[in-house]
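User: I'm new to structure prediction. If I give you an amino acid sequence, what do you actually give back? Let's try with this one:
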Amino acid sequence: MGEKYDIIVIGAGPGGYVAAVRAAKEGLRTAIVEEKRVGGTCLNRGCIPAKAMIHAASLYREMKEGERFGITASEISFDYGRILSYKEETTDKLCQGVEQLLKANGVEMLFGKGILEEGRRVRVVSETKEAVYEAEHVILAAGSKPLTLPIPGFLLPGVLTSDELFRLERLPQSLVIVGGGVISVEFASVFADLGCKVTIIEALSRLIPNMDKEISQNLKMILKKRGVDVHTSAAVQRVEQEGELYTCIFNEKEKEIRVSAQYVLCAAGRCPNTEGLFGEGVKPEMERGYVVTDERFATSIDGVYAIGDLVKGMQLAHLASAQGAYVAGIIAGKKPYAELDAVPGCVYTNPEIASVGLTEDEAKGKGLGVKTGKFIMSANGKSLITKEERGFIKVVIENETDVILGAQMMCARATDMIGEFVTAVANKMTAGQLMKGMRAHPTYNEGVLEALEDVFGEAVHVMPKKRR
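Assistant: Good question. You get back a string of structure tokens that encode the predicted 3D arrangement of the chain. For your 468 residues, that looks like this:
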């Protein structure tokens, strides 16, 4: 039997490593188990590499469009191999930083496959050795993996997951993306900006369906303007290989349509990575592949917790990190400070998209009386300077109390600015309280005040509604 710890965390992604560092800071003897490299999906195969590629592709597109600002450049080109190297360099620096954080806080790193055994024991299996460790508490943070759809032809070599797409050494000339969620539209933005012919096929009636309807509509128009072919309410039937190309066959408006490309990306979401996580005789309560937990993230096994993509809810790195800190605090006997219901959702397209709390439709669906404020960013000075695409900021307010229920943004720097509304929703602030703060000029953030003022018909830069 190996050593005994206060806490063993299985998985060193954003949820796991944050939980481990927090626990260690509270004086708990902590170990973390990781099969591959610290940082999990987010740092290695998800958020960070994707955003690095988005930045590079956006920069290339902006350079080609420099004439709008009086800037002329000739022979603008890119080296896809160097873009990949930049992506890897960014990932490497962050992963090294996480390792240093763990070491500096006294967290012991155990490399290998972590398997939960009976009695809160964790078996760690690597290529060179196998050991069993004991813990007072175990936190399961094994993350997720790409979801593969049970559609004929999806096992063909040209049908890729997001992990496999990242590993391509050459830019695809054409790409069909099955799915219209966040992963889909972000990859579509990257490859379309780099000159790849991109087609999106989404089964539901609109892209990113969990966002505000207007955001979905605007995004579809912007992607089409940039050459992306978008099909919604389209059901994929099968994929066939035709020479060097792969043909995706789908039904749209009762018609069979065939689209061929060099590769097909399955971007239909992710599922919990529970394969091999539980030893013989160990089985926590599960529901549709997810580990069931209570409000404290405790599983049906005493002393065992689960966080992040293993549990139901939004699959987001920052949510997993907040849950990890929350559980570590509970184990240490501290009152957690995070409000886990106020979760920002971000999409790193151009323009960026961000939201928190309830949309207008969701609020009305809950029987709440609401009023809304909206500011079109084409009247914002900073947006005019940088010639942004049409965007907006919308805020949803409860009628009787003026409490901010949610906000939706589609504009430059939306993923940064949403933090102001997250704070407001988490603290149940009123519109009046958030309006007290002055916004600097010229900034994109001025649009926040304008949207809040519009709730009460007081926005300066919004044209007054015509009176009947």
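You can read the tokens as a compact description of the fold. Here is one thing that stands out. The two ends are 81 Å apart (CA to CA).
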